[in-house]
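Section: Multi-chain targets

For targets with more than one molecule, the full set of components is provided together so that the structure can be written out for the assembly as a whole rather than chain by chain. Components appear in the order listed by the source. The example entry contains two components.
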Amino acid sequence: MIFTSVYAGWESVEKAHEKSFFDFEFITWMAWTWQTAAFFIIIAICLTAMVLWEKKIPGGTPRRGILGLDTTRGDRLFISLLSAAYIHLAWLGLVDLTLWIATIISVLFSIIVFRYV
Amino acid sequence: MNKTINQKAWFFVIPVFILVAFNAVVPLMTVVNYAFQETFGNNVFMWEGTRWFKQILRSERFHAALGRQFLFTGIILLIQIPLGIAIALSMPKKGIGVPICLVLMSMPLLIPWNVVGAMWNIFALPEIGFLGHTLNDLGFDYNFTQQIGDAWFTTILMDVWHWTSLVVLLSYAGLQSIQPAYYQAAEIDGASKWAIFRHIELPKMKKVLTIAILLRFMDSFMIYTEPFVLTGGGPGNATAFLSIDLVKMALGQFDLGPAAAMSLIYFFIVLLVCWIFYNLMMRNEEQK
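Its structure, encoded as tokens over all components, is:
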């Protein structure tokens, strides 16, 4: 009654934004950005690619590499990702050039890891 | 022979998957998102790129906290591992002494972290605490709330008191699993006590000791409650280990972005150490 009419004015303020087709209201608290979303999607694609690769050309059984460790393909992916993290952190901490160079180094490094470790 | 392919077992993984998603994956993703943004609350975020990582990696404060953390972990490992082995070696092997020793040893492990902190806080107070008062009576100028050295001494003593038992119990279990035949052979050869320790007991304990070092490393590297209750990170920042500094930054200053970047760096250190230890353990397994 009287209260509804008082609040009625505020409803238009509250509904300032229109709901789009894809409504991500329930995860806005996670503060997503397209960059971080892309990062996690790339990780997911990596994992899926590993599964498909193993299906297509099985060969993920452990093998002894230059580190003297028995590594499967999954282990090598883990080593690549972890070293990529460290390469990027070292780059940010020590160098002021663009971070893409660190990304290129990481990719080259992971190729080495997949071949020889 | 052909194995039937049945993938239905995967459905049993779903509950665990959901649980892990909610208590680990979703929070971790949120932290990653925070680490690249600035916020003043109210769910409003601004993109900052890699600024926080640069800031943290080059900040004196982070280097100092990391240094203190490694120093603390190093010191307690250097004390607890040899001390734990020594106590395990001197414990009785059979008889009524065994259960008594085991119960006494496991007692500190059963006390919650915050209670340990509060106990040691009161125990070490210079005016009324037993330890503090006694040390002052003996002529030492002891005050853990004011002097850096004393604060470190008390924190390390507390951790040694709380966790050495874990190393003792693990080493004792390792020692008990050694067959008597090894000792008989050593006796026939006239081996010295040191030789027995060096060539029989230590190699046989290698596996449990790796686990003990890993557990003690991780626990001490993530230590929060005990020093928080005991010294609150003080005096100044002298005992503000990595996790205490992190909470100060995240909740004290509400710098969610830098705190998220710091916790990711923290996470990568922990991940690397875990991976190294995992491989060491696997190598031990192989040699068996």
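The mean pLDDT of chain A is 82.
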